[in-house]
């Protein structure tokens, strides 16, 4: 099978870019990723975007971004899977190189969520839930994660404060990321005393949606050899799905899509949980990261939250998480999250993460989720 | 390179399915396509859909359809490119088999456009145009095609009546398609005397948007050999893009994405225009089909409309078009069109098209366009 390498990255700061369009943000990140590489060498563009149609009244972003970035007529796609959009775009871009159709392709994760009415934003985010059984009753994704957290607290006997180390770790790491939305530390006390959003999720248990674009350039081995390194190899790539509606799942605390895609990615990479030096998960709330840690096999059922409490998710821990701020401090860019995650891990695997560098990081895992984990994309990256 | 075969098809009638959701239509078509094949054998689902988020308040259709069809946890995607959504989904599904990632995958084209307010529908369809320069001024896609037709009439000296044979041919063929939206013939006189919609496009020059779902099963050669035939080989597959906004194109009457994707598909298939026995193009209006015929190389610039006037697009002609009604009589199912097109051609290549059978049809071309031709997907099919 043809090997696929990440040979370039680019991103905009995560922020409220009121004056920008999704296309303009994506073009900036794409131009930055290309650097000295001629745009004509790009064979295809895979755009991951969740809300362009709903909030930007612009669909066909693949074609729009291709043209705006000066790649007129190039093959271009838009993939949508809520918060997993960036991850599924990466998977398809990866397959396009494995298939032999292309030698160099760009993965663009982009989201523009500000400069819209608050109600429109909440409604747009709820599109990734089940329209007929959840969204129609006003059930937001945040409300559903809160219900899962409540169930977790009840079933395993934890306290809401046990989840506070997730946002605290994310903010601590985010201070080192100049592109992060929030670059200040927070404390467990501050998390617990924050205004309640959806009980038991307080304001500081919740990520903030913001605008941003992130780009990865993928290349075949032959092209990667030509370009300046170090390059990072995609050793495993997998996507899986689950029901949109929580009530359709036999066990709501088990993220089946996350489990299945992680297991498939590990299988493809011929690696196991113990090989992972650093990781990025969907960590919109501590409960999401907890359930993902369990689904991926980093912790037994009912023990994921202990990895945060015991400091294992810190830079010096066994499962360093959100090393550049995660979605909590970097900001939740919805369809772009999956690409920002991989860029953060590439920085780690290149040994270029500065004061948040995980020592001797050689193997990394990125996983992003759409809706309440209805789509999961998992990638395993290796510094050869 | 691994060969890819179409081993199954399924579709719902194109109609106003007020009581159905997109997921329910897709599940019906998928179940019908699978027939005796166990759902567990499907490795991935590629959904082409343009308006789920905008009109159905449901995104993540890949996961939704997978679960509804009993394929819980399967790899699933949603691709969006306006009216080209079905074609780009087919292209990615094709590449997933070429890459070796899968042996059997499903391509689902689905659209649900009825049971919404008329204004919402027009606005949703305009998402595929340029939001900043076109849609914001109220410019619909129909209005833009009308402007291109006016320009064509002026530049080449035709009369609007010269385009009438396109819908007349489509309706004549649609009478034989039990799943078509319209199953009655129309005349050139009727076309020309119809109520004006966007001068020079009258009501019968315009396709009608309607609901429907269509499914293709693609398989590797090994799996295709196991299953009952005849199977149709995908000999060429290509996608290209152009600017969203008409005013950004150096020559508005030249559909550059259509030209580039057709040329790439012909190159991959090692075939030429003269080899095509039957074809499906985006034929929302005669002007669209005319410009596509020219871009694909079936006619010189300024002469595409003559193929209709001279009867070449009829069943007995040199370029039989819309043999099952095209988007005019079959109905415009937006993101599903690209899949319905291919099913219609598979029927021709299997010699199963009954009274609209093109004699000795062995090679076919399907092309679908998104927006004003901003995305184009072209596939060449061969009965081996």
Largest interface: A-B, 61 and 61 residues
Low-confidence runs of at least 5 consecutive residues of chain A = none
Strand content of chain A: 15-25%
Order of SSEs of chain A, N→C? Answer: EHEHHEHEHHHHEEEHEHEHHHHEE
Spatial order of the strands forming the largest sheet of chain A: 3-2-4-7-1-8-11-10-9
Q: In terms of structural class, how would the helical and strand content of chain A be classed?
A: alpha/beta
Strand count, sense and closure of the main sheet of chain A?
Answer: 9 strands, mixed
Assembly state (oligomeric): homodimer
Mean pLDDT of chain A: 96
Q: Helical percent range of chain A? A: 25-40%
Shape verdict of chain A: globular
Instruction: Give the number of DSSP strands of chain A.
Output: 11
* Gyration radius of chain A, in Å: 19 Å
Compute the number of helices of chain A: 14
Span between N and C termini of chain A? 17 Å
Task: Put the structure in a nutshell.
With 384 residues, chain A is an alpha/beta fold.
């Amino acid at each position: 099978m043809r090997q696929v390498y990440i040979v370039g990255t680019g991103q905009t700061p995560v922020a409220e870019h009121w004056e920008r369009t999704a296309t303009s943000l994506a073009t900036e990140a794409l131009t930055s990723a290309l650097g000295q590489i001629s745009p004509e060498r790009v064979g295809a563009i895979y755009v991951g975007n969740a809300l362009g149609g709903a909030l930007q009244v612009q669909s066909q972003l693949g074609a729009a971004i291709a043209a705006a970035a000066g790649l007129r007529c190039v093959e271009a796609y838009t993939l949508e899977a809520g918060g997993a959009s960036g991850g599924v775009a990466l998977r398809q871009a990866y397959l396009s190189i494995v298939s032999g159709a292309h030698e160099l392709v760009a993965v663009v994760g982009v989201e523009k969520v500000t400069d819209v009415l608050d109600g429109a934003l909440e409604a747009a985010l709820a599109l990734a839930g089940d329209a007929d059984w959840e969204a129609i009753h006003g059930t937001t994704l945040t409300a559903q994660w809160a219900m899962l957290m409540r169930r977790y607290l009840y079933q395993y006997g934890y306290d809401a404060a046990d989840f506070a180390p997730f946002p605290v770790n994310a903010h601590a790491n985010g201070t080192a990321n100049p592109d992060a939305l929030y670059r200040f530390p927070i404390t467990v006390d501050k998390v617990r005393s924050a205004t309640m959003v959806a009980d038991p999720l307080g304001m500081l248990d919740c990520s903030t949606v913001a605008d941003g674009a992130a780009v990865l350039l993928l290349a075949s081995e032959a092209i990667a050899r030509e370009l300046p390194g170090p390059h990072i190899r995609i050793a495993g790539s997998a996507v899986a799905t689950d029901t949109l509606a929580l009530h359709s799942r036999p066990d709501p605390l088990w993220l089946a899509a996350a489990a299945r895609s992680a297991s498939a990615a590990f299988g493809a990479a011929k690696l196991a949980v113990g090989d992972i030096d650093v990781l990025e998960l969907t960590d919109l709330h501590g409960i999401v990261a907890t359930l993902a840690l369990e689904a991926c096999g980093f912790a037994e059922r009912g023990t994921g939250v202990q990895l945060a409490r015991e400091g294992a998710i810190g830079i010096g821990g066994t499962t360093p998480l959100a090393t550049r701020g995660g979605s909590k401090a970097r900001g939740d860019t919805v369809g772009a999250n999956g690409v920002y995650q991989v860029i953060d891990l590439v920085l780690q695997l290149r040994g270029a993460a500065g004061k948040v560098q995980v020592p001797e990081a050689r193997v990394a895992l990125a996983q992003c989720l759409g809706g309440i984990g209805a789509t999961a994309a998992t990638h395993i990256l290796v510094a050869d």
